[in-house]
Amino acid sequence: MPARVAMITYDFYPFDVRVRRLAEAAADGGSEVDVICLQQEGEPPYEICNGVRAFRLPVGRGFGRSLPLTVSSWLRFLALAGVKVARLHRQQPYDVIHVHNMPDFLVFAALVPKLSGAKVILDVQDTSPELMAAKARGRRARAVLRRLAAAQERVSAAFVDHVVTVGWPFEKLLLQRGIRPQKLSILLNSADPKIFPEARRSAAPNAASDPTRPFILMYWGTIAPRNGLDTAIRALALALPDVPNLRLDLMGRGEHIPALLRLAEELGVRDRVTLRPPCPAEEIVDFVVHGDVGIIPYRVDGFEELVLPTKAYELAWMGRPILASNTVGIRSMFRAESIALCEPEHPEQFAAVVVDLYRHPEKRDRMVASAAQDYAAYRWERMAQRYRDLLAALTTPRRAATSSVTSAAPSPLRDRRTAQ
Asked: What pLDDT score was predicted for residue 401?
C-alpha cells in the first residue's frame, strides 16, 4: 500500500526544487503527499500543486539576517509546523515524515507522529557544521557555531529513522560523525525531466562565428559570498578584450547582490552583467538553454568545496558546458574531460578558460558529450525510484526495511562512492 507522507521544509513550495522533485516522485508512486512550508507574500495558505497538498505557514524567510533572527524564525516555524503536522496526523495518520534541513532540529516537529509509529527521515541538503562555520565571521565565532551545529545535527540524526543526503562528500562526513551506513542513503539532486524536458535539450549557438550575438556565461541560485560570483565578474573583465561579446547573466537572490553590482561598476563591466529575480521552477529551463557556458565559481570554505550543485546536473542534462571551481564535490561527479576546472578565487584562470571555450566550440561539444555520459547513471528517474523504494522499505517491518534500503542503491552510486 502506498505511504502517506508529510514533508516539512523551511522554504517555499513549489519553489524549492528538491522538495518538489521528491514530493512529486512519491505522489507519482501512488503516495498521498502533504508539504508543510513557508508562505510567500501573495500565496494562499493551502494549495494543491501537481497532486501534492501544500500547507503554508505564516513565516517569512529573509536573506542576510543576523543569526539570532534566523534562529528565532527557525524556532517559530518549528512550533507552527509541529502543531500543523500533529493536527493533520490526527485526522489521517502519516506513515513517513520527511524533514528537509536546514535546520536539522526541525525533525522534532515530527514528534507526535513519531510517538504514534510514523517513520521520520532527515534530509541533509547542507551539512550544518560546515555551512554555519562558513557563514561565521571570526575564528571564535566559527568554532562556537561549528560545535553547536554539530551537536544539533547529532541529536537530530539520532532521533530519526533514516538520513538521506545529496552527494558522496556529504555521505563521507556523516559516516565519520557516527551515522550507521544502514541508516544513510544518497538521493542526488538530478535534473527532473518534468522541469527540464528532453525536448528542450539543444546545442548552444557558436557565438564566435557571430560577433553580434552575446557569448553568455550563466549562473542561477543563491547569491552569497561563498558562491564566488565576484570571481566570475573579475574573470568577465579580464576576458572581455578577447571576447568582446561576452556577458554574465545571473538569476537568483541573496545578500551579496549589492556588493557584486558595485564591483561590476568599479571594473567597468556593469553593462555586461544582467541580474534577474528567481523564477518558477518550470521557467529555469529557459534560462539554462539561453546561455553558452554555466559557471560555478564556488569558494573553498569548508562547505562549498563539498557541495555537488544541482545546476551541474541541469547543465549536463541540457547540453551546456560547465566551468567550475576545482572542488571535491564537482570531482566526485565528473571526469576531467567532462568539465573545465579552475582553482577557486583565481579569476585569471577562469578568464583564460572562457577565452579558450569561446574560440574552440569543438572543445565545448566534447565536454558536453562527456558530461552527458557521466550523468547518465544518475538521471532523476533512477533517483525517484530509489526514493520510492526507501518509502516502501520504511513502511515494512524493520527486518525487511534493512534489506530493502541496502539493496535499493543502484550499483553506479556505490561504484562512484567507493572510488572517491
From this structure: 40
